[in-house]
Design goal:
Blueprint: H1 2-20, E1 33-41, E2 44-52, E3 93-97, E4 101-103, E5 106-108, E6 111-118, E7 123-129, E8 145-152, E9 154-168, E10 174-191, H2 194-205, H3 214-227, H4 231-243, H5 252-264, H6 268-278, H7 284-296, H8 300-313, H9 318-330, H10 334-344, H11 351-365
Antiparallel strand pairs: 1-2, 2-3, 3-6, 4-5, 4-10, 6-7, 7-8, 9-10
Helix pairs in contact: 3-4, 3-5, 4-5, 5-6, 7-8, 7-9, 8-9, 9-10, 10-11
Length: about 375
């Protein structure tokens, strides 16, 4: 009789140990699928982690029922007596923003939020709770709200079996986050100040290892010019690419970047002075592109001077022959332009360039500007 009692005691001890240990990883109960979806707006990452309940034959019995209840209700468990819907299944649905954003035009700081919804037939109030770690909405507390926005529900033509979140209607600085389930979509708009965030990132990185090359300062300055943003800071960065001790270099790229910023600031005389210093340092392609820019600005005499410098440094090759043809044509000297373009024709590196030069020759022979 003593052996069975010892065995029973041993089994009870093992069972107690199992109960006190952590549970094994297993598939979520109820057949709900776990998912994570994310997308970037510029440098801003938006991610949503959630569980996906299925319709499972309950079409027409989802919204406004215990499955996805309207309003605030007492769920019979937890501390909340007026709980919203958990916007998914199982644990908190968690939405995270890596930077500050605007949701439906309202400010929301960077961070992770529990996502809840006060559902209605025609509209939904979306809640971003500072509590993102509780289970579902059983412990929802309105005092922990970071933001509430109210949006219109939208009908779907086809039923979506498994609840999902998608990013739709993207632009450079915004996207709509949409919950889709059964025949309803609940969308809310998220915006990020892409340029402001990018400039803040540049400022931080340029104090780190990325700031130990002149190329990084050129990149930051050029970004400002392209986006017409903080041009005074762009000029500081451009000047640092040239003059910063141990890092700055005086070369065509750094000087032309500084000139570009000055030109954008309507300080053209200063920009031209910087470019006069830069031109002797430029390689064939850099000079050709700069001269093309001058042509576009209708500064034909200045363009001719740069094309000529390039030709003298790199005589009788395709690029410089084309450049001289363009320059002389822009000055109206079609007769002198023609031999350069005819010399360039057999030098063309591919059919596209060959056809382009042939078209320019034809224009000159017809008494037209080859650049038009």
């Amino acid at each position: 009789m003593r052996k069975p009692s010892i065995l029973i005691c041993l089994l009870l001890t093992l069972y107690s140990a199992v109960l006190s240990a952590q549970q094994l990883t297993a598939i979520p109960e109820g057949g709900n699928k776990k998912a994570t979806v994310s997308e970037n707006i510029g440098l801003t990452t938006i991610s949503i982690t959630y569980s996906r309940p299925g319709v499972k034959g309950r079409e027409g019995k989802i919204w406004g029922t215990p499955v996805a209840h309207y309003g605030l209700v007492d769920l019979g468990f937890g501390s909340s007596k007026a709980a919203p819907w958990r916007a998914g299944a199982n644990e908190n649905t968690v939405i995270a923003f890596s930077t500050d954003v605007k949701v439906e035009g309202k400010d929301l700081p960077a961070g992770s939020y529990g996502l809840h919804m006060i559902l209605g037939e025609s509209e939904t109030t979306v809640i971003f709770s500072k509590n993102s770690t509780s289970w579902g909405s059983f412990f929802y507390d309105p005092a922990e709200d970071a933001l509430r926005v109210t949006i219109k529900n939208q009908p779907l033509d086809k039923s979506v079996e498994w609840l999902k979140y998608e990013f739709i209607d993207q632009t450079d600085n915004s996207a709509t986050v949409a919950l889709l389930w059964e025949k309803r979509m609940i969308p809310f708009r998220v915006e990020a100040d892409v340029v402001k965030i990018q400039l803040a990132s540049f400022k931080n990185e340029l104090r780190n290892s990325q700031g130990f090359t002149w190329q990084s300062f050129v990149q930051a300055a050029n970004y400002c010019v392209r986006n017409k943003a903080d041009l005074d800071q762009a000029l500081v960065w451009a000047d640092q690419s040239v003059n910063l001790p141990f890092i700055g270099q005086k070369n065509f790229q750094t000087l032309s970047t500084k000139a570009l910023v000055l030109s954008t600031l309507n300080r053209q005389a200063e920009a031209d002075a910087v470019m006069k210093e830069a031109v002797p340092m430029g390689n064939m392609n850099e000079l050709h592109q700069y001269a093309r820019t001058l042509l576009q600005q209708k500064r034909n005499k200045d363009a001719y001077e740069v094309f000529k410098v390039n030709y003298d440094k790199n005589p009788n090759v395709f690029t410089t022959n084309v450049g001289m043809g363009r320059a002389l044509s822009a000055l109206g000297d079609y007769k002198k332009a023609l031999p350069y373009l005819k010399a360039a024709l057999p030098q063309a590196p591919n059919e596209l360039n060959k056809n382009s030069v042939a078209g320019m020759i034809k224009k000159l022979e017809e008494g037209k500007d080859a650049n038009m």
